[in-house]
Amino acid sequence: MPQSAQPNAQQAALWNDASGKAWVEMQPILDGVLAPFERLVVDAGYPGGGSNVLDIGCGAGATTPAMARRIGDGGRCVGLDISQPLVTLAAERARADKVANASFEVGDAQAYAFEPGHFDAVVSRFGVMFFDDPVAAFTNIRQAARRGGKLAFVAWRSPVENDFMTTAARAAAPFLPPAPAPDPEAPGQFAFADGAKVKRILEASGWSSIKVEQVDVQCRITEGNLMKYVTRLGPVGAALREVDQATAEKIITVLPAAFAPFVVAGEARFNAACWLATALA
Predict the structure, then answer these.
(1) Residue 53 · residue 152 · CB < 8 Å
(2) Minimal CA–CA distance to 270: which of 114, 164, 119?
(3) For residue range 35-44, what is the model confidence (pLDDT) as tens digits?
(4) Are 39 and 11 in contact (CB under 8 A)?
């Protein structure tokens, strides 16, 4: 699958440097936190044994091998991600686990020169909210699917509904310069917070039989891993890489109390409020 020009330069720079490296470092913890979504996405997108499946934004390679095992040796699941560090790790893990029908490539799904009509299904676990032009991206992805091919992905709902995900930023805010108001149209974690917007994007991209359903998933992370998780990832993780030591220490000091309401019996438990979007090419 040769690749054409890449439009999402800012995302490429981010995920091939600090963010990608942080996700590589945090892979075991992230896999545990996001494990409930693996089955959800595989079940929703499974096109049958022996099929070809594309996994968009495959990250460190959890969903791709899971789908590859499900479709069996007669099929193949290809993981695509903009981050070279994550794709390298994903390929290493698949080889170590002997999942021979899972493969990985570096590329941007918005501009990738897919073989037309090749895939029986396209899936994604939180990998489709980062496109500069989501209609162009989903049009390109649709053209990679065969007629009647499945699409299934999960994306975060609103920040208000995902209070765990925004707790660190709220706790750190008094110690950081005022942040600009978030642009709901900009690429990012909550870019698909509006379910009606998701449906409009898919309609404009030529998908049919579109469903955008609310899904609430209970996630967990051990108390021992919690502070590592919240100080390495997201906007606070990015801020801590930039601020001076005194400011970093102030932020790190207030985080345990901020997350205390989520901790029960040695683990943080939280609701992940998402959309499960499905459609047909």
Answers:
(1) no
(2) 164
(3) 999 999 999 9
(4) no
User: What sign has the CA pseudo-torsion 161, 166, 171, 174?
Assistant: negative
* Residue 214 and residue 275 in contact, taking contact as beta carbons nearer than 8 Å: yes
Burial of 73 (0-12, 13-18, 19+ CB in 10 A): exposed
Question: What is the reported pLDDT for 52?
Answer: 98
b/e per residue, 118-129, with b = 16+ CB within 10 A? Answer: ebbbbbbbbbbb
Report the half-sphere exposure of 201 (CA within 13 A, side-chain side): 24
DSSP 141-182: HHHHEEEEEEEEEEEE--TTT-HHHHHHHHHHGGGSPPPPPP
47-78 tens-digit pLDDT: 999 999 999 999 999 999 999 999 999 999 99
Give me the amino acid identity at 180.
P
CB contact at 8 A, 85 and 113:
no
**Would you state the pLDDT for residue 181?**
80
Amino acid type, 204: A
CA distance 120 to 195: 25
